[in-house]
Amino acid sequence: MVNGHIESTYSVEEGKWTAPKFIEDPYLRVHGLSTALNYGQQVYEGLKAYRTQSGKIQIFRPAFHAARMQHSADVVSIPPVPIDHFIAAVNAAVVYNAEWVPPYESGAALYIRPVLFGSSGHLALTPPAEYTLCVYVQPFSSYHGTAPLPAVTLEEFDRAAPKGTGHAKIGGNYAPVMKWSKHAMKAGFPMTLHLDSKTGEDIDEFSTSGFMGVKITQQEGGAEQVVLVVPKSDNIINSVTSDSLMAIGKGLDYQVEHRTVKYAELSTFSEVMAVGTAACLVPIRSITHQLRGDYFVYTTESAAGPVCQKLYAELTSLQRGDREDSLEWCHEVKQVLDGVVQE
């Protein structure tokens, strides 16, 4: 559907990355004994490019994603991709597929999927000699839509172990969830929520996105204070959307709490959202814990709550270039591609 993808390889012997190369083909040539295919030595990212009303294209927070990929790579013994090289590869992928960036009026975006993996043949359980960075793109709207969705806690399966790899964006953390997400969907739950695997008493994250709760407290004089509550845990990835919304919330004079969130707090939230690059902000209608017989309802309406709507409007207006980017989060796509090779 798109024009092609970007590839760059790293040689351990030479200690450097090749110039990004544009390839008009969605397929890869990878050794069958690569550490990616055999041992899961692989990490990935997900970010978006948006077309502004003036026709410019901008990528949202690529440096954050580059740093997060470096963290994930370290977890699985992959050499880090320099931030400038990551951004250059992502920029090139968007430039060569610029006509596939949806128009401003559509509200959609170009989803960008960088993938980094051990690519040379290597049977031993040790780091290989070569690694490959690929950047794919695909036109994309929100993953779950914007209507409130029911969620269920996953009780038969723990996604991440204490002192494990839950904080890294690696495929091995997500593939095992597919089975349980499919079961949950058949039972009427499009969203699945993970509790910590050690105690089952702390909120970790949704399978496809981060968790954000909203509390409304009464101040002196009767004024209401909005409180955003975001889980802080070594078992979950550092969410760019959560990080962005916490900063936006502070700018709106919301109180922000980034901390351990107890399961027992689910009854105290006025709104709950699933937040992520693919999901954006998804309002949660309810959360069910089947073994405990718990059922927490956050809305019976067909639309998101007021805080979710406000945060969604603030975030998307920034991503789409409708408000000043005072935090310099957006990277304007450059058409000049110095050093990029076209196959």
TrEMBL record:
Cross-referenced InterPro entries: Aminotrans_IV, Aminotransferase-like, B_amino_transII, BCAT-like_C, BCAT-like_N, BCAT_family
Keyword Transferase attached: yes
Pfam family, one: Aminotran_4
Transmembrane segments: none
Reported cofactor(s): pyridoxal 5'-phosphate
GO molecular function terms noted in the UniProt entry: branched-chain-amino-acid transaminase activity
Residues the record lists as N6-(pyridoxal phosphate)lysine modifications: 169
Keywords: Aminotransferase, Pyridoxal phosphate, Transferase
Gene3D superfamilies from the UniProt entry: 3.30.470.10, D-amino Acid Aminotransferase, subunit A, domain 2
Keyword Oxidoreductase: no
A biological process term (GO) from this entry: branched-chain amino acid metabolic process
Signal peptide: none
SUPFAM superfamilies, per the entry: D-aminoacid aminotransferase-like PLP-dependent enzymes
Similarity section: Belongs to the class-IV pyridoxal-phosphate-dependent aminotransferase family.
Protein name listed in UniProt: Branched-chain amino acid aminotransferase
Lineage: Eukaryota, Fungi, Dikarya, Ascomycota, Pezizomycotina
